[in-house]
Fold each of these.
Amino acid sequence: MDQTALMLLLCLCSSALSDELRLVAGRSRCVGRLEKKDLGDWEPVTDWNWNWNFTSAAGACRQLRCGSVVSLQRDEDDNVEIVCSDSVRLVQGTNRCSGRLEVKTNQSWSSVCEKDFDRQDAEVVCREIGCGPPSAHQGALYGEAEAPVGSREFLCEGSESALLNCSSRKSSGRNSCSPGQAVGLTCSDNIRLVGEASRCAGRLEMLHQEEWRPVDVWYRYWNMNSVAAVCAGLDCGSAVSARNSKEASERPVWWIRSDCFQSGSALKNCLPYGRHRDQSHEIICSDSVRLVQGTNRCSGRLEVKTNQSWSSVCEKDFDLQDAEVVCREIGCGPPSVHQGALYGEAEAPVGSREFLCEGSESALLNCSSRKSSGRNSCSPGQAVGLTCSDQDNIRLVGEANRCAGRLEMIQQEEWRPVDVMDSYWAMNSAAAVCADLDCGSAVSARNSKEASGRPVWWIRSDCFQSGSEEKNCLPFDGNNYRSYEFICSDSVRLVQGTNRCSGRLEVKTNQSWSSVCEKDFDLQDAEVVCREISCGPPSVHQGALYGEAEAPVGSREFLCEGSESALLNCSSRKSSGRNSCSPGQAVGLTCSDQDNIRLVGEASRCAGRLEMLHQEEWRPVDVMDGYWNMNSAAAVCAELDCGSAVSARKSKEASERPVWWIRFDCFQSGSALKNCLPYDGNSDWSLEIICSGLLVEPLIFLSSSTDGVSTGRKQGSELLIGSHFSIICSIRPQYEGGSFQLIFSTSNYTQNQTLPAVNHSALFLFSAAGHAHQGTYRCVYHVYVFFYNFSSISQPLNLTVSGKLMESIRKSSASVSAFPTALIIRLVVVLLGMLGSVLLLYFKARRNQKSGPENNHHDEGSRAEGSLEEETAV
Ligand SMILES: *[C@@H]1O[C@H](CO)[C@@H](O)[C@H](O)[C@H]1NC(C)=O
Ligand SMILES: *[C@@H]1O[C@H](CO)[C@@H](O)[C@H](O)[C@H]1NC(C)=O
Ligand SMILES: *[C@@H]1O[C@H](CO)[C@@H](O)[C@H](O)[C@H]1NC(C)=O
Ligand SMILES: *[C@@H]1O[C@H](CO)[C@@H](O)[C@H](O)[C@H]1NC(C)=O
Ligand SMILES: *[C@@H]1O[C@H](CO)[C@@H](O)[C@H](O)[C@H]1NC(C)=O
Ligand SMILES: *[C@@H]1O[C@H](CO)[C@@H](O)[C@H](O)[C@H]1NC(C)=O
Ligand SMILES: *[C@@H]1O[C@H](CO)[C@@H](O)[C@H](O)[C@H]1NC(C)=O
């Protein structure tokens, strides 16, 4: 989607309702195709991105001064069609199918008096607003109203399509109607599960426009949380399972947005679109048990439904056998914990029964039970909280080790390879997979293409954003060629670090993870760990770097030689004096990370085509979602330590070639970049980036009649008074032309002079040196390339002038004070020999510079040096 379209969309969703609106071509002014006035013209409102929902439609009805929103459709041209009720609406309810009834008469809305309204009338209203039959209607359900005025007594037969079609008469004794007697109405569920014996299991259907149809969900957001919302909406128990089934042929369905299911109450706010699809969704909810307020669907406070209402269970009425039955009933693994008050205190359990399960029953209500004895002795803190173990639904296969291999997921009792439908798969996902399997750190991840298609489970990538979410994922049946392989380390991991290559070290021994004591761990050990998790060599290791741990327990002293491939391959011995290891001494480790991106094709490492290293192969990069901007480029420049982004563009190559496809949000921040997992593919596009740190650092040399040429980088340079000298600025050849500015400064004085660069150098000549020449000199190289000005500054050269000042020299130098133009003989001709020696020096200086810690450009390839040598030889 391009930016204009995005803007347009935002406008539509957020501000359309402030525009002037109308509905056209419908049976009334409250029904029809939505149009808005745009610069004086009426334009149809379109919803090509399926973005309209109940809230936006309700807003339109409100603005049109119509009643409740009844339906929302798109025609073939994506035009929005809305049906609002004409003269009835429900207000202040929890959803669109409940609220206080208001009727429009004489252009104004008023409440209806309870005594003027009966069950038949309610049926008509619920039908009119597109909801299920009425389940409750009574006064003051949804807040008190002004005392209903102008009320009529309705005399519906029940089959009318609108309330104002019913006959009515003036309400008798109107004055006797108090505010608390305004009709509140609740229309019933518009969803159901069909096709199974229980009302809590089966194919999901929705009632809309008086028609029940199977539901198809915009599946990208359909997960176990949505299913739980359906179960709750039906007043069933926990979500047990869900699957998507493919029908033999297409048929009419109600197609809904998955955010309909964000919460139980919103369900009735769903406005489906009519469509033909071959998908439907089957759901199983438990009938009469549920776990509430837990951290996932397999844990929580137990509630049992008896006599149409849910209540907690008293701890003393519930034992391990009972827990086994409940965990089985909700489709989780065997119970691991059950005790009171684990998941918040409940109302004191009432009407509790003591359960007498044998453990093999399939449902709690199949167990025999008896009235709980001494019920009054059960306090709120004793409501049963239950944790069922969750079964692993993923595994890695195909390698010797359970912590490496192709990712598979089990669904409907079938293991299949996994593919991600939204093509976003990152090292973070890999880390979640590794964590979920209780393996160590994520070491590598790749996707591979299979020779032939085969059944896979399609999932959304954010299934793996965190370990817990993944259990809520609902995979879709499908076929594909791709599979994903992960390698996790087996028995070491770094936790709480800023990236995958740093953190507090934990080692798994005897099925549990523990920290390592600083004194049991040395540099060789660190080298092995960094290698094992596929990071660069260790740069730091010390205690308490990444948060304090529990004092390391059961720690072993590692005796690695440094070349082992895994820490547990090192010999080790029981740590001596273990008790002396405090929490602050748990090993924190930082392994250096290797750069996995570079810019190529230009004279500078800070400009050019973006390439990425993946599976040991450098390839150009393309962004799969086409989104590429200065922020992305800025992240690349920052990552390469090249300053800020100056330009970013996509350029087309002559032909397709292999690239690494990435998602643009890989570049949201520098740190995320290393977590990107690219895809294999072909493209004829390149990403070109120019960073502000384009230029290498110029070099500065001092040449004097007495001492020859020297660099002033390390210590200050000293000149004999009266000697002639020159300062030479030079830069490694990157771009033609440019200029050098020589900046001279003392503590109270700054001046500068500029010369054009000739052969990437400039020579600033000075006559007899005097004290006024003492100070700091710097070369700044300026060049205009790629339509931008760039500059780069040299190290300082500190010059001191020593010796007796002769009167004659003082005279001449005093007349022009310090760094005056008159003292500089402008360079007209550069002697070739001079230049040669400068370049030789340059080369030497660079070699020295390579080992210097202050050097920022240490990794400019040897290719550049080679070309320098060539030039020197000329
Ligand atoms: C069920 O509830 C009804 C009314 O709320 C009550 O009359 C009845 O006794 C209850 N039955 C049981 C078994 O608790
Ligand atoms: C549980 O009870 C239901 C009916 O209440 C029955 O159909 C089912 O067979 C029972 N199952 C077991 C395992 O007892
Ligand atoms: C491993 O754990 C078990 C039980 O937790 C314990 O009995 C055993 O001694 C442990 N072994 C080692 C080597 O620590
Ligand atoms: C490390 O240990 C594993 C078995 O524990 C063995 O297969 C592997 O060869 C060892 N590697 C090295 C380098 O010692
Ligand atoms: C700078 O300061 C020095 C003394 O610190 C003084 O001799 C000199 O004249 C000053 N130069 C200028 C240009 O102000
Ligand atoms: C260079 O000198 C000019 C005047 O000659 C001055 O305007 C400019 O600010 C100076 N630049 C620097 C970097 O000192
Ligand atoms: C620049 O260097 C080249 C050789 O590298 C030489 O031929 C040429 O004359 C030089 N130009 C100037 C203006 O010195």
Amino acid sequence: MTLSDSPETVADRLARVEHRIAKAARGIGRDPAAVKLVAVSKTHDAEAVRAALAAGHRRFGENRVQEAEGKFPDLKAEYPDLELHLIGPLQTNKAKHAVALFDVIESVDREKVAAAIAEASEKLGRRPRCFIQVNTGEEPQKAGCLPAETDALVALCRDTHRLDVVGLMCIPPADDEPSLHFALLAKLAARNGLKELSMGMSGDYEVAVRLGATYVRVGTAIFGARDYTPA
Ligand SMILES: *Cc1c(COP(=O)(O)O)cnc(C)c1O
């Protein structure tokens, strides 16, 4: 399915997702403004991003540095308040490019990456906010540090590498009850004194909001199905 098959526009879908986030937040007595929507535009072109910008949205997520470099520099020049999140794995040799373009890096999951971000930050005089990605399902193929390694990695990133660590991020296993993972992430964040929780995608963002998400990352429900599934 492509967007043109659908009578709904990006603006309609954005409004619906925002409405559902607000409803889920109010339902448990949270301030809806405490939950921020990251519109995940990976695989979609700059025109799709423009439609969201025209509707007033300013926060986007991309999972590949190179793909983001193809769409966002011009858009960021045009919309200085655009906030761009890196949500996919970062290779150390791309750290400089990532620090130059992204405002938030959500996928810090090992010390080498933290060190590369720190070095690039120093060189470029830009200090992106960082999330530590936790592999809550302990899936061998998935990025993220193990839950048991989280406290140590947070300390290393904060104290040794002086990253601006603001929170934790997770992607639960596809076939598991997401609430267990969201609750675990919330617990790990609380015990490390971290305020931000990036959790919840198109299929489960309302559950995530009820369990304390401060950022939800939603792609398909806003931009439609992707033509291919990036690794
Ligand atoms: C693609 C992606 C999303 C968005 O997924 P949807 O199911 O399309 O909402 C969220 N987080 C990460 C890390 C992603 O790679």
